[in-house]
Write the structure tokens for this entry.
Amino acid sequence: MDLERIDMSALARDLGVNRATLYRWVGSRDQFMVELVWWMTIRTLEDLEKGTHSTGPDRIVGLTIEFSERVISNPGMKHWLATEGDSAMSLLTRSGAGYQQRLIGWVEGSIERQVDAGNLTLPDGVGAYDLAYVIERVMAGYIYLDLITGEQPDAKRAEPLLNMLLRGTRPS
């Protein structure tokens, strides 16, 4: 696999359009990258969800860890984070970029579905959004560990923390 930086001029040539047209279609390169990564993210999450039969905390932890492992092992993500780490991290974690909010929303929806099914009860004062936010931050911390601390990314290190966090909830 030949991994290169996405070049918007080259992409425009490949599509047979000029750069101005490409930018009208996709916005900036940053916006394009966020949409591309989100498209891959949602496909991965939907695939994982179809193959998961667990419920409650086991489901949330399992989906989170498996998704994180797939991100860590994805050659394209590895390349992007290695070559454009600060920019990539900013796009994946900055509120205005649009990626993080969607991922938190997806996790929030997963939590709400488990609550609605009676498989998970949240403690008083803990909302699905707040729990989803914390789960996403833990997940990101271990996915981007090399950029944050220089350590090897390792989703499994997050598993006991997520279990501790979610076992504080009571199964219905």
About this structure: The domain at 28-167 is CATH 1.10.357 (Tetracycline Repressor; domain 2). The mean pLDDT is 89. Residues 13 and 19 are 8 Å apart (CA to CA).
